[in-house]
Amino acid sequence: MKKLFIPLILLALVMTATTIAKRNNQGQMALSTGRATAGHMDQLYVEVSALGNLDYFYDHKLGMKLAGEALGVRTEYVGPAEYDMPAMITAFEQAMAMKGIKGVVVVGFEDALVPIVNKAIARGIPVVTVDADLPTSKRVAFVGTGNYKAGFEGGSKLAELIGGKGKVALMTKVGQSNLEERISGYKDALAKYPGISLVQIVDTQSDAVIAAQVATAVLRKNPDLAGIGCVEAAGGMGAATAVKESKLAGKVKIVSMDRGNEVLEQIGRGVISATVAQRTALMPFYATQILYNLANKDIPITDDNAAAGVSTAPAVIDTGVIIVDKSNYRYFLRK
Question: Is-above-0.70 flag for pTM?
Answer without folding.
Answer: yes
